[in-house]
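dude i think i finally got it to work??
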Amino acid sequence: MRGLVSHRALSSVLGLLGLVAAFVLTTAPPARAGESVFIEVTPNSVQAGSRVNLRAGCDNSNNRQAQVTSDAFGRVTLRPDNGFLTGSVTVPGNKAPGDYPVNLDCSNGNTASTMLTVLNMAQPSKGPATGGGGTAGSRGTGSLLLVGGLVAVAVVAGVSARRKTGGRV
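look at this
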């Protein structure tokens, strides 16, 4: 009986270890070449005339300069900076709105790309007409003077009527 119990316990433990090993082996992601080759544009949506920051990785070549090109801003050289390649550039103020590819060319031959969106947001010429709600129109000073005059007449009439009846109840 004792041998049967220990045989069952041993087979249970071995079965559990087999399941754990299968889980670990099937969930580990495969290593891919060029996994650390990337280009980031921050912010990735800008108004024409705005500055963007570029950050890139060229696998094991982050100690050498790399080139970034885009129709949005032309050509930029990225320089090594704390383990990455960085740079910044201004999108020309007359750049047409749209989505522009941004391409990284590393010195080791690796490449990466992302997108930059250039927006066309018109600048407001003046603030909205406010103060009377969303449907308020523009009133001249004449209507304000008229309302003020009517209030003054009402106050004077009320005071004089009260004086006439002031002593009598």
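The chain has two helices and eight strands.
im so relieved honestly
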